[in-house]
Amino acid sequence: MNTPQTTVGPLMPYLFRVLTACVALGFYLQSRLYNFLRNRHPKVYESLGRPTLFLNNSIQNGLAVQGFILFGRFKHIDDPKLVRLCSFLRVFLFCYLVFFAYVVIYGFSTSHGRPTQ
């Protein structure tokens, strides 16, 4: 009888690689967003706390950026490229979180060493 561990277990290294690629893509997209805001919308960039990927991170500006993306605060800006980037980022973040949760939950559910038959 196939257990989940024997059917999907071999896929875990590949799932981990996909998650790693998603993290890299997420960093790239966030970097593009920050550069875009800094260069084309400096007032919005300032209002978000002048975020960067690593150096100027705080809980406050992280939440501000996430709220900007997730709650659609970018839609009032008349810039189609910004709206397209933020819309994609919103969908990407949601899909990444769902995928990440699946991998973590599946990993915990199969890691306690169920006997296979």
Structure explained in plain terms:
By secondary structure, this protein is mainly α. Helices cover 71% and strands 0% of the residues. It contains five helices and no strands. It has helices spanning 4-8, 12-40, 42-47, 59-70, 80-110. Helix 2 runs antiparallel to helix 5 (80-110). The protein is elongated, with a radius of gyration of 19 Å. The N and C termini lie close together (6 Å).
Write the layout of secondary structure elements.
Elements: H1 4-8, H2 12-40, H3 42-47, H4 59-70, H5 80-110
Helix pairs in contact: 2-5
Largest pleated sheet: none
**What string gives the helices and strands in order?**
HHHHH
Strand content: under 5%
Compute the separation of the termini in Å: 6 Å
Q: Give the helix proportion (percent range).
A: over 70%
**Envelope shape:** elongated
Average pLDDT confidence is 84
Using DSSP, what is the number of strands?
Answer: 0
Low-confidence stretches: none
Radius of gyration over alpha carbons? 19 Å
Structure classification: mainly alpha
What count of helical segments does DSSP give? Answer: 5
Pick out its properties.
single chain, 117 residues, mainly alpha
Summarize the structure.
The protein has helices at residues 4-8, 12-40, 42-47, 59-70, 80-110. It has 117 residues and is an all-alpha fold.
